[in-house]
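Single-chain item
Fold in C-alpha cell form
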Amino acid sequence: MLYILSGPDDFSLAQSLEDIKRSTGDREMLATNTTTLEGQQMSLAEFSTACGAVPFLSEKRLVIVKGLMERFEPKGRTGRQRKSKQTDSERNGHKEIAECISNMPDSTILVLTESQVKGSNPLYKMISRQAVVKSFPLIRGTELKQWIEGLWPVR
C-alpha cells in the first residue's frame, strides 16, 4: 500500500499518519517494523532494502519517507539555460524508485510525506495512480473557525 501525504498543514498530515499507524495493528510490533528515512539523504539501496524487507512477527511493515518528492522537483531556470550539476542517475533516479515501489511486497505500507508536491514532479507522475493521495492545505477563515469550535465546543 502506498500513501502520499502532502501539504503545509503539518498537524492534519501528522494526524493522518497516526491513523495509518493505528490501522496497521499492534503498536509494539509496529515499532519493530517501522523504518523512517529522509528522502533527501537516503540512497536507492536503503530505500530498496526498507521497502523490500519482510515484517518481523507481524503482518505489516511501515516505511515512512520524508521529503522524497522534493528530490525530483523540476528546478526553475532563469535567464540562459544553466547546466545542471545533477548526474543522469540523479535526474532519472525516480524511475528506479518507482520500480522499487511497484515491486514491494503487499506486507509493506509506504508513506511519503511531503511539504508540497507539484503535478509536474516525475516521480509523482509515475506513482500517483497506485497511491492514496491526501492533500493538507492550510485552513483559513470560517473553515478554521469551525475546526477550532469543533475542538472546544461553546457551552
